[in-house]
């Protein structure tokens, strides 16, 4: 069976490793690549539930437990009609290396179902979640596999699933992250991916400008309007940047004045999303809504681009458009937000234009803040403690700084940049994550 998303993610990693010196320095790691590309376990099951009309419904449920060399499997649960094994394997594969880059003890996994929460009542969602967890609870646990939320799985769904796990297993355990604050959740978790993304890019801007520039005055194009996009936008505004776009699945909302989006606008968008309404409701003299478009070709001047909606949302020609619009930094808030063609455009520009080039950071590094705080939630649960938002935010900043510095140093070591050229952060992220997992697997006898 064809698995295009998984093959794309695997090829992206393989091409990076082959174009570096890692296999020259460690030829035995070729075997590690072969082993790490196959999940340790794939669980597939049916989910039978009853809708409000009393009719029996059935969906396909999955959990891909990809790699546990560094810790319990960790990765989200996605509820969306497009969910299939290829998408979950791609996400789980990426998750292995992303989790490795956080420096925390977490393996990689992903799961979900082809259930569509849109248009369902609270009662139907509760019934689905209970039935889904009735099977999944046999395969997860705080030291085995700790799922989190993803598309279609927010605080409500995590709550229903946690209650179903507790009832089925007769134990309160930190088996899911993204929990409610009064029953084991971590502060800063909803904000973490967006905040972490901006913290990562902040280090890129400082490095590229020799410490002279920050987000202050930068025009920032963001796609998406969910959690990641909202909190990235709020953090950019807090740091003095101007947010010039957001988007949803129907089109892009573009700021028409120099002020861009304000925190009030972002709060209005959060309320719209909660009621499952489109961004068209915000179209007025300050914003124009472009039906069927993504922001990248709609904004004339951009300094920073943050794709934060879904996979493959920046194409090759959109990458060219971003460069033309003056973008100097692009970092993925979404997983595999850029197509391979787009990455090739950015990397070619980095080599050709050196210090004047656009600089690209992949999602496995730039959006690792979300899973990092999930890891911090696991730590709090294990210790039966709750940290303040300041403590969590400080730890998140430290993790994103260490992640950036690891990517930078690894890129310099294994893909030596030419004079005046920015190091390849995509190569650095892939090699650093892979190397850490491969070494742990070798120590544990997973390959030799």
Automatic annotation (TrEMBL):
It comes from the Eukaryota. Keywords: NAD, NADP, Nucleotide-binding, Oxidoreductase. One of its GO terms (cellular component) is cytosol. Residues 186-445 form the Glutamate/phenylalanine/leucine/valine/L-tryptophan dehydrogenase C-terminal domain. It catalyses: L-glutamate + NADP(+) + H2O = 2-oxoglutarate + NH4(+) + NADPH + H(+). GO terms for molecular function: glutamate dehydrogenase (NADP+) activity; nucleotide binding. GO terms for biological process: glutamate biosynthetic process. The active site is at 110 (proton donor). The record marks 150 as: Important for catalysis. NAD(+) binds at residues 193, 227. Substrate binds at residues 74, 95, 98, 149, 374. PANTHER family: NADP-SPECIFIC GLUTAMATE DEHYDROGENASE 1-RELATED (PTHR43571). Belongs to the Glu/Leu/Phe/Val dehydrogenases family. Homohexamer. NCBIfam families: PRK09414.1. This is Glutamate dehydrogenase.
């Amino acid at each position: 069976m064809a698995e295009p998303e998984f093959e794309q993610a695997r090829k992206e990693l393989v091409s990076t490793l082959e174009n570096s010196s890692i296999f020259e320095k460690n030829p035995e790691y070729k075997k590690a690549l072969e082993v790490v590309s196959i999940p340790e376990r794939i669980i597939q099951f049916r989910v039978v539930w009853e809708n409000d009309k009393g009719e029996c419904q059935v969906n396909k449920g999955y959990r891909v437990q990809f790699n546990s060399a560094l810790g319990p499997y960790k990765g989200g649960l996605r509820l969306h009609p497009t969910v299939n094994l290829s998408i979950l394997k791609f996400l789980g594969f990426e998750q292995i290396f992303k989790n490795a880059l956080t420096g925390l003890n977490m393996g990689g996994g992903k799961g979900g179902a082809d259930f569509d929460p849109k248009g369902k009542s609270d009662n139907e969602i509760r019934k689905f979640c209970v039935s889904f967890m009735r099977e999944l609870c046999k395969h997860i646990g705080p030291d085995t596999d700790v799922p989190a939320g993803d598309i279609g799985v927010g605080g409500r769904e995590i709550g229903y699933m946690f209650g179903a796990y507790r009832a089925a297993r007769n134990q309160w355990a930190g088996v899911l992250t993204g929990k409610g604050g009064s029953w084991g959740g971590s502060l800063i978790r909803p904000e973490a991916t967006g905040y972490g993304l901006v913290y990562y890019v902040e280090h890129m801007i400082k490095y590229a400008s020799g410490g002279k520039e920050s987000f202050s005055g930068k025009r920032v194009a963001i796609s998406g309007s969910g959690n990641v996009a909202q909190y990235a936008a709020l953090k950019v505004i807090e740091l003095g940047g101007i947010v010039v776009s957001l988007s949803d699945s129907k089109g892009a909302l573009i700021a028409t004045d120099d002020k861009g989006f304000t925190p009030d606008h972002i709060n209005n968008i959060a309320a719209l999303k909660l009621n499952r309404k489109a961004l068209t409701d915000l179209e007025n003299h300050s914003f124009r809504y472009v039906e069927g478009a993504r922001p990248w070709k709609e904004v004339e001047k951009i300094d920073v681009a943050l794709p934060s909606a879904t996979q493959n949302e920046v194409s090759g020609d959109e990458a060219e458009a971003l460069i033309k619009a003056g973008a100097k930094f692009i970092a993925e808030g979404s997983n595999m937000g850029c197509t391979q063609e787009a990455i090739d455009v950015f990397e070619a520009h980095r080599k050709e234009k050196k210090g004047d080039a656009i600089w690209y950071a992949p999602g496995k590094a730039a959006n690792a803040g979300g899973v990092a705080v999930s890891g911090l939630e696991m730590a709090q649960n294990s210790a039966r403690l709750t940290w303040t938002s300041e403590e969590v935010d400080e730890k998140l900043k430290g993790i994103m700084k260490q992640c950036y510095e690891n990517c930078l140093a690894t890129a310099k070591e294994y893909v030596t940049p030419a004079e005046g050229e920015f190091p390849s952060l995509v190569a650095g992220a892939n090699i650093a994550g892979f190397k850490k997992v491969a070494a742990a697997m070798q120590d544990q006898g997973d390959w030799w």
